[in-house]
Amino acid sequence: MSEQSIHLTPTGPPETVIGPYDAEALSALSEALKAATPEQKKRVAEIVARWPLFLDGWVAMGQLAHEPVEAYAYFRVGYHRGLDTLRAAGWKGSGYVRWSEETNRGFLRSLLGLHRSAAAIGELDEQERCAQFLMQLDPSGVPDGE
Question: What is the chain's Cα-based Rg?
Fold first, then answer.
């Protein structure tokens, strides 16, 4: 049974909030991204190997990818790991997952990265599904620049 609560809102579907990440994982990612550029990807790969449910790590791998198909693969892993994480937080397949909740951003960034990388490789059906899902999860949208 999940210890995360699902918040019922008087105006709509429930909202799910992903729990906080391990402080050690957050610190390790911060340090890895400060490393010299050639070392970053290797160090982030070590982080996702150690903490495979750490969504920000998968986002970083996607952002550090050299090719669109590689980015697509990393963002897809983050997206699927994120679905597992959401379910563990009590998500039942519908309801809001808001950007305003810091801990939800790894999942939403994974989904946004999947959307963008699908477009880059011509996977237009996937691009559209991701865009629709993002809007369903947070109709206020992901801020520009993400």
Answer: 15
Helix then strand count (H, E) for the chain reads 6, 2
Q: Is residue 146 exposed (0-12), middle (13-18) or buried (19+ Cβ within 10 Å)?
A: exposed
Sketch the domain layout of the chain as residue ranges: 53-137
Q: What is the mean pLDDT of residues 27-54?
A: 97
Model-level pTM? 0.89
> For residue 68, is pLDDT > 60?
yes
Burial letters 112-129, b for 16+ CB under 10 A, else e: bbbbbbbbeeebeebbee
